[in-house]
Design a protein that fits this description.
Number of helices: 2
Structural class: alpha+beta
Shape: elongated
Largest sheet: 2 strands, antiparallel
Strand order of the largest sheet: 1-2
Strand content: 15-25%
Helix content: 10-25%
Order of helices and strands: EEEEHH
């Protein structure tokens, strides 16, 4: 039977003093509750000095993935998924038909000049 033991058993070498009080200063914080459409509650903590404008009104609920708001009786509705857009669809949103025609004509002119067909 061993009489002596290691005084540092269960600690890391160089870890410093043990105890929560030695882990730095904790700022004051405020708890904000969020609710999703299924009635699930999530709590997020923010610094007490933040204004209400800096605290988000809607978050994604960590368990359900639904949007969660601060009003329990009126949670935000689930966002509708937009269909996948192709690159051409995004380009058509930015360009009018006349601009597209002009760009195509310019590109064809440059191509013909490079090939010597202009």
């Amino acid at each position: 039977m061993s009489v002596g033991g290691s005084a540092i058993r269960g600690t890391r070498v160089g870890s410093g003093p043990m105890g929560e009080q030695d882990h730095g200063y904790h700022t004051d914080r405020v708890a904000v509750e969020y609710w999703d459409a299924l009635g699930n509650r999530a709590v997020r903590y923010f610094a007490a000095g933040l204004s209400d404008d800096d605290i988000p009104d809607i978050i994604d609920h960590p368990q359900s993935g639904l949007p969660a708001g601060r009003d329990k009786d009126n949670p935000p509705a689930e966002a509708k998924a937009e269909p996948y857009k192709t690159h051409l669809a995004y380009v058509k949103e930015r360009r009018t038909d006349e601009e597209a025609e002009q760009l195509l004509d310019d590109a064809l002119t440059q191509l013909r000049e490079r090939r010597g067909q202009a």
